[in-house]
Amino acid sequence: MCTGKCARFVGLSLIPLSLVCIVANALLLVPNAETTWTKDHLSLQVWLMAGFIGGGLMVLCPGIAAVRAGGKGCCGAGCCGNRCRMLRSVFCSAFGMVGAIYCLSVSGTGLRIGPQCYMNGSWGYHFEETSGSYLHNRSQWSLCVEPPGVVYWNVTLFSLLVVASCLEILLCGVQLVNACIGVLCGDCRKKEGAGQ
Predict the structure, then answer these.
(1) Which parts pass through the membrane (predicted)?
(2) Exposed/middle/buried for 79, CB within 10 Å: 0-12, 13-18, 19+?
């Protein structure tokens, strides 16, 4: 596979993943689709905006750069074998990898600690001491009275962020290697024809 075609495939995969992370983080801000709890009772991991900033905007940048690196070339005819765009994609991919790692670490911590909720007459992180074992015991989830359904909401969305950020790390790594090869060797489509 040509470095340009690979870059385009990776870019077109990273863009929807980054949008998924942005939407998941936005939904975490409104537990059970209600804004009542947003002001005082969201967990720190939600406010760190890892899905919006890390897995979202920081990965959208390498996604767009990879799609552009898979284009015709910086001067429109592919005369440099896309080396300039590939070099830009190297830096963007490294930047995106940092964002995806940030998203993964915050989302994993959010899953391990659990949501902030009202249980046994007080607000707090009541699942923090379980070290994530509450994830396997769904009967404990209903013990969180407020916000209603917050455990299910957080587990679903943070799990989605973990999976998406793992895929982003993998794809950014692939594009990092692919772009380095593209910088050194150029795009093989130069030989096949500039119009591709």
Answers:
(1) 9-30, 42-69, 90-113, 151-171
(2) middle
Helix locations, 29-149, DSSP H: 44-47, 58-69, 83-113
Question: Helix, strand or coil for residue 119?
Answer: strand
Domain ranges of the chain: 3-31+44-74+81-192
Name the amino acid, one letter, at 157.
L
Q: Distance between CA atoms of 191 and 16, rounded to whole angstroms?
A: 31
pLDDT of residue 146: 81
Between the alpha carbon of residue 52 and those of residues 11, 63, 91, 131, the distances in Å are 18, 15, 20, 25
Mean pLDDT by 10 residues, the chain (196 residues): 81 94 92 72 87 93 87 54 79 94 94 84 80 79 80 90 96 91 71 46
C-beta separation of 157 from 27 below 8 A: yes
The pair of structure tokens assigned to 37 is 């709890």
Count of CB atoms situated within 10 Å of the CB of 76: 9
Q: Is the dihedral of CA 33, 38, 42, 48 positive or negative?
A: positive
